[in-house]
């Protein structure tokens, strides 16, 4: 799956989890950019991403993801 | 050995001297020996055996987990992890929570009409067990998750577990945060040592000048709530918030400052918590390392567990998307807050007052958020101005204050009785007729307490802008001298360390 395709799917997941159809994400988006992105929604977001892409993040990834770019890279690696 | 006593300062000065005289590659061994000495001066010697057991089991398990992981044997890794967790948490549970269980079993048996009288145990826990057990459990999980490497050197593991500054009251350090610093070589850096000592000085000031005075008033009022009812109760409740903060954060300043002198930066535990705008934020700025630990090692694994995911799916199918977003996370938080309460002590006032109360506040804020947002929009409240921030911070302070009353008053029903004694206060005259000067502190001492709280406020406001020590370091020499000598003489003249006051009692030291 290309990064563009990952981004398309991932944007839909973000919009669903944060209940905001206007959310747009890019490589440098972090928790600070999205109002409701706290530690609880972070976990819900990751679970939704796992379900959408059929992948499983390990705890290292859960604690270590710095921004959306890192998340997209990791999704790409896990799908490869 | 209290960390505000003269013997401690001598101990610290001696260790610092030896530390920088030692060949650099043996500095970490020096820290290990200092830690043993600190334990010897501060606790019953035999209790170190529990800590030794924790070190042996942790070293063994961490090594085996890492080995099993490299061999791809996840079952074996899981078993070694389970062993490490069971032994470490088992020691903690036995030493700290046996009596809680025994009391409740006896109580339940009495309720059931078959009274039992299981005697309580008289077990002495080693210094800092609640803190180092958290570090060790986090370390084992991090090795298991591949977040940090395993330390196979027994003495190095022992230093991580028992590094003396952390033994008094934390902070709960992660292995990844300290592993490079603990074992590496540190050059003598006079600026760093000066900064570390300045921080220690501020911590001692907080403890001996501010906290010790607040303690006198709080103890007087809470010691006799029949005489001191009405507004006295709330005065004590407010002052206890500042007492706890200056006591615990003062202790952290001394510890982190001392560690900084060795060149080792431990994680921060406080970030001006009284400026928080929500209860959730308060817990991100108060006892930070404990909150972060519970989040990473309890909340995340619980929410990501199969059971929770299945529950979420079930709720989504039956009750809708909104409920599926709220309920699982609120239940996950309940696990965290019950443990937060229990961690403070095996007693219902901690479980309910420090745990369930804060869980209720955070869960209510989450559920009612849309209502609050609507109300704010409807009333056209400006949420980006000083007065609104102040209102939010005062609200958080008041709510946290109720929880801390349970913490301080040592008894669930007792706290409720005290709160009742404070309801409908009818004695406002106490603030004007000199009654406040009869609470154990005379007029000048009471005024000094108020003034020192103002000093604390000013420093806290400056802390919001960055390191106060760095801000002072940028000033001209005479001004810097006035500040630091002022602090030293402030402690020497106004510090409460004479007879009748036991400086040894740091509130979090018993944990």
How would you portray this structure in words?
The complex is a heterodimer of chains A (80) and B (511). Chain A has helices spanning 3-17, 39-53, 59-64, 68-79. By secondary structure, chain A is mainly alpha-helical. Chain A has one domain (3-79): Orthogonal Bundle (Non-ribosomal Peptide Synthetase Peptidyl Carrier Protein, Chain A). Chain B is globular. The two termini of chain B are 15 Å apart. Chain B has 511 residues and is mainly α.
The tally of beta strands of chain B, per DSSP, is: 0
Largest sheet data of chain B: none
- What percentage of the residues of chain B does DSSP assign to strands (E)? under 5%
- Note the gap between the termini of chain A: 8 Å
Summarize the main sheet of chain A: none
- SS field, number of helical segments of chain A: 4
- Total helices of chain B: the number is 20
Name the assembly state: heterodimer
Main interface: chain pair and counts: A-B, 13 and 18 residues
Give the end-to-end Cα distance of chain B, rounded to a whole number of Å: 15 Å
- Overall structural class of chain B, as computed from helix and strand content, comes to mainly alpha
Instruction: Provide the CATH superfamily of chain A.
Output: ACP-like
- Spell the H/E element sequence of chain B: HHHHHHHHHHHHHHHHHHHH
Proportion in helices of chain B: over 70%
- Tell me, what's the shape of chain B? globular
Instruction: Count the domains of chain A.
Output: 1
Low-pLDDT segments, ≥5 res of chain B: none
- Estimated structural class of chain A: mainly alpha
- Count all strands of chain A and give the number: 0
**Order of helical and strand elements of chain A:** HHHH
């Amino acid at each position: 799956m290309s990064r563009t395709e990952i981004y398309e799917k991932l944007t839909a997941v973000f919009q669903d989890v944060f209940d905001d159809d206007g959310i747009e994400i890019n490589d440098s988006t972090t928790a600070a950019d999205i109002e409701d992105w706290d530690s609880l929604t972070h976990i819900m977001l990751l679970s939704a991403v796992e379900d959408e892409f059929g992948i499983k993040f390990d705890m290292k990834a859960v604690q270590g993801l710095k921004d959306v770019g890192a998340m997209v890279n990791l999704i790409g690696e896990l799908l490869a | 050995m209290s960390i505000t006593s003269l013997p401690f300062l001598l101990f610290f000065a001696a260790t610092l001297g030896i530390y920088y005289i030692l060949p650099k590659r043996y500095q970490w061994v020096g820290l290990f020996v200092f830690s043993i000495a600190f334990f010897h001066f501060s606790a019953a010697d035999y209790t170190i055996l529990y800590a030794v057991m924790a070190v042996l089991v942790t070293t063994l398990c961490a090594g085996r987990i890492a080995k099993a992981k490299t061999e791809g044997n996840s079952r074996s890794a899981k078993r070694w992890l389970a062993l490490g967790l069971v032994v470490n948490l088992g020691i903690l549970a036995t030493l700290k929570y046996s009596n809680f269980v025994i009391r409740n079993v006896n109580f339940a048996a009495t309720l059931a009409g078959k009274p039992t009288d299981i005697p309580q145990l008289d077990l002495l826990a080693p210094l800092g067990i609640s803190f180092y057990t958290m570090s060790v459990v986090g370390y084992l999980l991090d090795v298991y998750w591949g977040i940090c490497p395993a330390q196979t050197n027994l003495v190095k593991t022992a230093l991580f577990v028992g590094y003396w500054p952390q033994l008094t009251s934390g902070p709960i350090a992660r292995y990844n945060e300290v592993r490079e610093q603990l074992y590496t070589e540190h050059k003598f850096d006079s600026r760093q040592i000066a900064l570390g000592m300045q921080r220690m000085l501020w911590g001692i000031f907080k403890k001996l000048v501010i906290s010790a005075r607040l303690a006198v008033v709080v103890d007087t009022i809470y010691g006799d709530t029949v005489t001191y009812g009405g507004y006295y109760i709330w005065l004590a409740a407010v002052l206890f918030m500042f007492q706890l903060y200056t006591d615990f954060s003062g202790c952290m300043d001394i510890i982190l400052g001392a560690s900084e002198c060795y060149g080792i930066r431990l994680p921060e535990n406080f970030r001006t918590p009284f400026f928080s705008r929500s209860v959730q934020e308060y817990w991100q700025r108060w006892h930070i390392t404990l909150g972060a630990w519970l989040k990473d090692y309890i909340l995340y694994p619980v929410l990501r567990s199969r059971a929770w995911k299945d529950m979420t799916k079930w709720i989504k199918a039956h009750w809708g998307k909104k409920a599926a977003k709220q309920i699982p996370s609120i239940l996950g938080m309940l696990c965290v807050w019950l443990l937060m309460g229990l961690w403070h002590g095996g007693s219902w006032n901690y479980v309910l007052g420090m745990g369930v109360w804060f869980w209720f506040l955070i869960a209510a804020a989450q559920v009612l958020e849309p209502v609050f947002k609507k109300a704010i929009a409807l009333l056209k409240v400006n949420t980006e101005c000083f007065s609104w921030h102040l209102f939010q911070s005062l609200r958080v302070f008041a709510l946290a204050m109720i929880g801390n009353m349970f913490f301080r008053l040592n008894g669930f029903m007792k706290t409720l009785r005290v709160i009742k004694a404070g309801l409908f206060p009818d004695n406002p005259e106490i603030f004007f007729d000199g009654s406040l000067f009869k609470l154990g502190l005379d007029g000048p001492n009471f005024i000094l307490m108020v003034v020192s709280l103002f000093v604390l406020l000013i420093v806290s406001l400056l802390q919001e802008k960055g390191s106060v020590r760095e801000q002072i370091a940028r000033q001209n020499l005479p001004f810097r001298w006035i500040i630091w000598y002022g602090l030293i003489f402030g402690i020497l003249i106004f510090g409460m360390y004479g007879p009748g006051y036991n400086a040894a009692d740091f509130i979090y030291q018993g944990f």
